[in-house]
């Protein structure tokens, strides 16, 4: 579900852009049109309740369809409802796109926010939208993107969440590469803690990948875009499973519903992505991955960047082919914590050694000066 970074959320490469096209496999006549910011958000309203009347006054067929979809399912004056006069959307600032819509930068009550626009044109989709709003509203955790509210009576519908100042996890780690590997394992630990929080509350993420993990101004990793994968599709999918195949569990490649166990597999692939700084399964083409994984039951060889067998074994344990054989999240968190602590100690030792080396060089330099000075005096 929707938040965006303060920098544009872009694919890792042209390959990722092609991958996403392959995954969705839309028929040409059924490709979604480019979404505009919710037009109703720019109207003024005088009260929280009047938003209903204002939206009904809109004459566009698209908004009328949206209103009709929500007519029988929306609660009366829900606490998460954001009046349009409290939200400003920057029309020109599209900061992200995904399979569920586009994300615009906005401002809500003086705070910078992300506004994700989602097409909802049926009662079934409206019900799913409201279920996801209810889920996200309850998901209050430091490692989950904060939800402010929603504007369902607009076209497209809008979800409003905090803006992540440091962008997506892959982009953040690339920018902070000089900070050391402690940061890598610490942010992965953050993401695992967020996932544990969701699972403890019966919430399946369903679309874990690097671009769905955002990083706050303080450097805290936060899960994003969970739950929307269960929304009914607005167009027909043909030829492949929906979702991000490069992070997808084998059972989901055969059109099975995401589970807690499939989240574990996807998180293992997130670790691969973070450590290698590459998309999983590269250079394999996206359409070849299901054949390789499901039919041949093959997995990746140990990837560059994994400095110990224990680190790679964590990935293998999370990505076991059989769902019931995957490493429990509690154990994964323990290992991530150990890796982060080990890297922290190594970096502290490295810094201590560096300071000692600098001090030794300074003393040698000062000693040479002390020996040279008497020689100069004798020459005089």
Q: How would you briefly describe this protein structure?
A:
By secondary structure, the chain is of the alpha+beta class. The protein has helices spanning 14-24, 50-56, 61-70, 123-138, 169-175, 181-200, 260-276, 289-295, 309-318, 329-379; strands at 87-98, 101-108, 111-118, 147-151, 157-162, 213-215, 221-223.
Index terms:
single chain, alpha+beta, five-stranded antiparallel beta sheet, 10 helices
Describe the structure.
The protein has 380 residues and is an alpha+beta fold. It has one domain: Transferase(Phosphotransferase) domain 1 (Transferase(Phosphotransferase), domain 1, Orthogonal Bundle). It contains 10 helices and 7 strands. The protein has a 5-stranded antiparallel β-sheet, covered by helices on one side. It has a two-stranded antiparallel ribbon with strand order 6-7. Strand 4 and strand 5 form a beta hairpin. Helix 6 packs antiparallel against helix 10 and helix 7 runs antiparallel to helix 9. The radius of gyration is 25 Å and the shape is globular. The N terminus is likely disordered.
Blueprint of the fold:
Layout: H1 14-24, H2 50-56, H3 61-70, E1 87-98, E2 101-108, E3 111-118, H4 123-138, E4 147-151, E5 157-162, H5 169-175, H6 181-200, E6 213-215, E7 221-223, H7 260-276, H8 289-295, H9 309-318, H10 329-379
Antiparallel strand pairs: 1-2, 2-3, 3-5, 4-5, 6-7
Helix pairs in contact: 3-4, 6-7, 6-10, 7-9
């Amino acid at each position: 579900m929707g938040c965006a970074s303060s920098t544009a959320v872009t694919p890792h490469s042209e390959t990722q852009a092609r991958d996403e096209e392959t995954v969705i496999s839309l028929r040409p006549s059924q490709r979604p049109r480019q979404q505009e910011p919710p037009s109703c958000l720019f109207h003024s309203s005088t009260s929280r309740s009047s938003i209903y009347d204002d939206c009904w006054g809109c004459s566009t067929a698209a908004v009328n369809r949206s209103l009709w979809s929500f007519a029988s399912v929306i609660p009366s004056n829900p606490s998460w409802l954001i009046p349009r006069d409290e939200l400003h959307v920057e029309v020109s600032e599209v900061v992200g796109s995904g399979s569920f819509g586009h994300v615009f930068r906005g401002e809500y009550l003086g705070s910078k926010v992300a506004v994700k626009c989602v097409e909802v044109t049926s009662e079934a989709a409206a019900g799913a939208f409201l279920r996801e709003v209810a889920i996200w509203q309850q998901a209050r955790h430091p490692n989950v993107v904060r939800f402010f509210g929603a504007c369902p009576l607009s076209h497209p519908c809008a979800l409003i969440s905090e803006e992540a100042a440091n962008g997506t996890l892959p982009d953040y780690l690339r920018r902070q590469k000089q900070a050391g590997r402690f940061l890598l394992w610490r942010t992965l630990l953050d993401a695992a803690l967020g996932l544990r929080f969701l699972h403890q509350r019966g919430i399946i993420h369903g679309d874990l990948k690097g671009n769905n993990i955002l990083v706050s101004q303080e450097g805290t990793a936060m899960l994003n875009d969970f739950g929307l994968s269960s929304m009914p599709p607005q167009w027909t999918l043909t030829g492949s499973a929906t979702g991000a195949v490069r992070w997808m569990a084998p059972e989901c490649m055969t059109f099975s519903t995401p589970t807690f166990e499939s989240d574990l597999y996807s998180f293992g692939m997130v670790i691969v992505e973070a450590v290698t700084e590459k998309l999983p399964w590269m250079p394999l083409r996206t359409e070849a991955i299901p054949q390789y994984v499901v039919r041949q039951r093959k997995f990746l060889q140990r990837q560059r960047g994994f400095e110990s067998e224990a680190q790679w074994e964590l990935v293998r344990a999370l990505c076991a082919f059989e769902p019931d054989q995957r490493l429990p999240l509690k154990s994964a968190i323990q290992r991530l914590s150990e890796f982060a602590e080990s890297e922290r100690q190594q970096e502290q030792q490295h810094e201590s050694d560096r300071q000692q080396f600098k001090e030794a060089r300074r003393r040698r330099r000062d000693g040479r000066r002390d020996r040279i000075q008497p020689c100069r005096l004798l020459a005089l």
